[in-house]
Design goal:
The chain is an all-alpha fold and 201 residues long. The chain has one domain: Globins (Globin-like, Orthogonal Bundle), CATH 1.10.490. The chain is built from 7 helices and no strands. The protein has helices spanning 32-45, 49-63, 80-83, 87-105, 110-126, 134-149, 155-185. The longest helix is centred in the C-terminal third of the chain and has 31 residues, at 155-185. The radius of gyration is 17 Å and the shape is globular. It starts with 31 loop residues before the first helix and ends in a 16-residue tail after the last helix. The chain binds protoporphyrin IX containing FE. Protoporphyrin IX containing FE (HEM) is lined by residues 67, 70-71, 92, 95-96, 99, 120, 123-124, 127, 129, 133-134, 137-138, 168-169, 198-201.
């Protein structure tokens, strides 16, 4: 199968639209067979995670340069090709893919997984990284791993990864909105944290 990706097949402005606060939390529905497809393909992807992490973020910054501005470490770097060699970008990519690994490991425990992703969405509010961009990380992940898996990348494998990323993006958005609401109720700031206030850098 070719590696042509048309998107995650998900429009962010649905159940998580801020005008629909009563919307329920998205759920992850994967059969046992689909869960196996995910874990089996992850064991192959795992060998190349450092490379995949860098590819995802270079492509994200190429297609959506405004995303780079949310990163204190990269916002002033203009040379994207130079960034490919950056240890910081490698470390960041690894953090993101470790999260994907955790999600795959908890695929059978959806309540624990939901909790983790909600917290991640809340931290992204503090990083000032808005939900409309989350899906691009999923899309770039899929287009980066497709050539690695070669003939093992089937339409079924692609679909389970899309389902997982749609879920991650939707729950992250719910967490982001919760944090946004919480800060607005408290009358707190909606500005991004200073570098020293983030947990990650
Ligand atoms: C599926 C989408 C995404 C996932 C799974 C993800 C995951 C992560 C993880 C695991 C971290 C490490 C720190 C933490 O746990 O809080 C992180 C940090 C961060 N993310 Fe994301 N992220 C996603 C999308 C994005 C997007 C689209 C942006 C920018 C618009 C972004 C900006 C940031 C920033 C600024 C940090 C803090 C700096 C750092 O850790 O180096 N993230 N993200």
């Amino acid at each position: 199968m070719g590696c042509i990706l048309s998107g995650l097949g998900w429009t962010p402005k649905t159940s998580m639209d801020p005008v629909a606060p009563e919307a329920s939390m998205p759920t992850l529905e994967l059969s046992l067979q689909e869960q196996e497809l995910l874990t089996e393909s992850w064991t192959l992807i795992q060998q190349d995670i450092a490379k995949v992490g860098v590819i995802i973020f270079i492509r994200l910054f190429e297609t959506h340069p405004e995303c780079k501005d949310t990163f204190f470490l990269f916002r002033d770097v203009d040379d994207l090709q130079g960034l490919r060699m950056s240890k910081d970008l490698r470390a960041h990519g690894l953090r993101v893919l470790s999260f994907v690994e955790k999600s795959v490991a908890r695929i059978e425990n959806s309540s624990r997984l939901e909790e983790l992703i909600l917290e991640l969405g809340k931290s992204h509010y503090r990083y000032n990284a808005p939900p409309q961009y989350y899906q691009y990380v999923g899309m770039e992940f899929i287009s980066a791993v497709c050539p690695i898996l070669k003939e093992k990348w089937t339409s079924e494998v692609e679909e389970v990864w899309k389902v997982l990323f749609r879920y991650i993006c939707a729950v992250m958005e719910a967490g982001y909105r919760e944090e946004e609401k919480h800060r607005n109720v408290k009358g707190g700031t909606t500005k991004p944290l200073k570098r020293s206030q983030t947990t990650a850098i």
